[in-house]
Amino acid sequence: MKSQLVYDAAISLEHIGKIFEILSKVPEFVEKKSQVSGIEILPGGLTNFNFKVTVDDVTYAVRVAGPDTHEYLDRPAEKYNAQIMSDIDINAPIIYYDEYYGHQVCKYIDDCITLHIPDFKNSEDYLSKAAKVFRKYHTCGQPFKADFDPLKETYAYLKILKEKNAELYEGSEQMLEYVEKIKESFARHPQELAPCHNDPLCENWLDDKKNFYLIDWEYGGNNQPMFDLGALAIEAELSPEQERFFLKEYYGRDITDKEYGLLIINRFLCDYLWSYWAILQIATGKSHDEYWPYGQNRFNRAMKLVENGSLDKALAEFK
């Protein structure tokens, strides 16, 4: 009896072909002469293309890496880092990983929900769970393969953009002055590094009521832990009160003004970094209409911390 493939009409033939090519690299599937019966698009992801794929009646999450992402992402490091997170039940179990291009097959987390902004914004329970997941892997004692330094990443992006003569957002020079101030502050007050995700979008969190997962570790690296918390605070659109609750859940105690200031500094660094990442996507051929507004929104949000005095107040804690 021939099996029938059911797939979303929105999936391109190119991606269907790529999915089959990736699956053909999984030894278990080759040995069993496995059959694919379904392909669905999974939500989220600006860099890659994600699909729920049914193979022999078992579901998997297949990631087709974005074109040329291997040129600026350390894929072997991601494999190493993601496996550590799978071993401590934070990442989904990895079935196959392409160390060159970054294609990946993971066990699909059945009966799970993908979280979105309202889930965190309207639920202290999810904020508490996320804080505990962050705390768990930040203190796991297993360093990642490489560091992720937002300051160095920012300078690297700017160097590439300058070489490509790319257009920058208005106010970039003023923002760079604050990056220099932060660099000086951290030189005076070095921050301890820990394994970090560095891009914990709301949609990277999965809840199956048994475990709370954080997936997609392609930007993972040793960083100061507050960068992760700052990133999620931005993505979930948390209020200052919610941010303080989040930090209290993370530390398991009342927080200091210096700790809250560190969150503000990292919120600035996170938005500033990804605003230039967006321009880099344009410079490498992606849609201006899609990435320029995305980066502009992040840039404006970082600028607001300058204009309302929040960043200066935070930096005063590190003099």
UniProtKB/TrEMBL annotation:
It comes from the Bacteria. SUPFAM superfamilies: Protein kinase-like (PK-like). This is Choline kinase family protein. Keywords: Kinase, Transferase. GO terms for molecular function: kinase activity.
